[in-house]
Specification:
With about 190 residues, this protein is an all-alpha fold. It has two domains: about 55 residues; about 90 residues. The protein contains five helices and no strands. Helix 1 crosses helix 2 and helix 2 crosses helix 3. The radius of gyration is 34 Å and the shape is flat.
Length: about 190
């Protein structure tokens, strides 16, 4: 297991040495270029190796664009098309999420309403036959609290999943007590003023 953990460290060390060698070659061949890389790294808060990698990526991207014979206008048009497609996809996703949430909440509402009616009918029938015991009433009260908590949690999860802001009424309220103790002055401390 220790060998497995050492391999990534060794690879990182090797990569660091290779990048250091590359930067050393750049410093020897073109000191002005090395100074420019160092200055960009210092200004952007990145390492010189990251600056070199990003610069090479940008260079190859420019080469691809030039090789495809695209001009700047065509490139901007392509970015505009991509942006519009991304906006449309986001709008569709948001709309589908809202529909799903709407259907889910209405279904849950119907189920809850049906259960409440059944419970009221059952309680009405039981009260007409006989009065429920104290234990039954407490049990039903606890059961109602559990069901209510479960439904609240489902609503919170649905709001979170859909990306909508959770209403204040559904946020979990955690009681907090703050106790502030004042420090008592120590009696053994002498203060001398010169």
């Amino acid at each position: 297991m220790a060998e497995y953990e050492e391999k990534p460290k060794k690879k990182q060390k090797t990569e660091g040495l290779e990048i250091g060698r590359l930067l050393g070659v750049i410093a020897r061949i073109d000191p002005e270029l090395y100074d420019a890389i160092s200055k960009i790294a210092e200004e952007s808060g990145e390492t010189p190796s990251n600056v070199v990698v990003k610069s090479l990526k940008n260079y190859f991207l420019i080469q691809k664009v030039e090789a495809s014979n695209m001009n700047v206008g065509q490139l901007l048009l392509a970015f505009d098309v991509f942006t519009r497609i991304a906006e449309t996809i986001t709008r569709i996703y948001t709309h589908l999420g809202a529909l799903l949430f709407n259907e889910m909440t209405s279904s849950i509402g119907e189920i809850v309403e049906k259960r409440v009616k059944e419970r009221l009918e059952t309680l009405a029938n039981v009260e007409s036959e006989k009065k429920p015991s104290d234990i039954d009433a407490r049990f039903k009260s606890k059961l109602a609290d559990i069901v209510e908590g479960l439904i609240d949690e489902m609503f919170r999860y649905a709001f979170k999943a859909s990306g909508f802001k959770t209403p204040e009424s559904l946020k979990v309220k955690i009681p907090v007590e703050v106790h502030i103790e004042e420090e008592k002055p120590k009696e053994d401390v002498e203060i001398k003023v010169n």
